[in-house]
Q: What sequence folds into this?
């Protein structure tokens, strides 16, 4: 019975194996980025950037239909443009960066939906907004794997300044000039991984496998390395159980994955050994002198 529910879908159907591979790759690249977004208090920035890639992907769709190269290129260009424009507006006006990003992401979302609606059908719009990881093909999987490889390599290069900036940005600016390049490289990685998530989960849920696993990890570890490992594992588990839930029920695969991650987050909030609610209600006894 357990075999039929948990393993058989992946042994019998190639599209399930391909979807599982995509989830694993997304977890490896996106979850570490999500941890740094959370530590840098940029979680909502990640959500805004996820919507920002939509107009570029939509223009690619308008020109070439559901073409992988066109939509990926368009999404990357749009994401980088919104990040740059929001930064320029925030630095040269009295508008804060979060408000600037909110303005751009709302505009981007409306523009992207309009562009897709001009050429496509409601099915195309749903595909762009919510994705369809079960329809993952080999070229898309290879693109996601390549982007994840680039993410891990760049993240390894900028890891130390990123960690220091999370802990003490003033110290980093005092002893090194690596802070600004590391920040720009990090924003580029955010866009790349949001484009990855877009292909699998759509623009509305792309950020889900970045932020929710990071939130889960925060309740189980205080160490950054530990948080990254827990985030990656929880993202993989969420993806696997979400695919199983989708296969056994009528729940779409993308929302199923995010709902499982949300359930793990609730469990972590309640029972996590780092500031979990139950832990705070019943603290462990301390040794008395």
A:
């Amino acid at each position: 019975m357990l075999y039929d529910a948990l393993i058989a879908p992946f042994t019998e159907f190639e599209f399930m194996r391909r979807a599982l591979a995509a989830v694993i790759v997304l977890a490896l690249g996106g979850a570490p980025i999500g941890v740094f977004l959370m530590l840098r208090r940029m979680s909502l920035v990640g959500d805004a950037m996820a919507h920002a890639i939509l107009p570029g992907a939509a223009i690619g769709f308008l020109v070439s239909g559901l073409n992988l190269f066109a939509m990926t290129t368009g999404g990357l260009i749009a994401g980088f443009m919104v990040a740059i424009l929001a930064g320029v507006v925030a630095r040269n006006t009295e508008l804060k960066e979060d408000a600037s990003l909110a303005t751009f992401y709302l505009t981007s979302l409306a523009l992207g939906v309009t562009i897709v609606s001009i050429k496509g059908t409601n099915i195309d719009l749903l595909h762009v907004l919510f994705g369809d990881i079960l329809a993952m093909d080999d070229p898309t999987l290879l693109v996601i794997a390549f982007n994840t490889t680039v993410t891990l390599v760049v993240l390894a290069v900028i890891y130390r300044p990123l960690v220091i900036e999370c802990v003490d940005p003033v110290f980093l600016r005092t002893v090194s000039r690596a802070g600004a390049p590391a920040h720009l490289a990090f924003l580029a990685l955010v866009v790349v991984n949001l484009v990855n998530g877009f292909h699998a989960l759509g623009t509305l849920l792309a950020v889900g496998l970045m932020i929710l696993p990071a939130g889960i990890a925060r309740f189980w570890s205080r160490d950054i390395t530990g948080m990254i490992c827990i985030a990656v594992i929880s993202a993989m588990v969420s993806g696997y159980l979400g695919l199983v839930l989708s296969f056994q029920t009528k729940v779409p695969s993308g929302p199923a994955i995010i709902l499982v991650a949300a359930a793990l987050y609730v469990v972590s909030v309640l029972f996590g050994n780092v500031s979990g609610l139950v832990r705070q209600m019943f603290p462990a006894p301390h040794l008395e002198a």
Q: What stands out?
A: Residues 138-167 form the longest helix (30 residues). The chain is about 80% helix and 0% strand. The two ends are 54 Å apart (CA to CA).
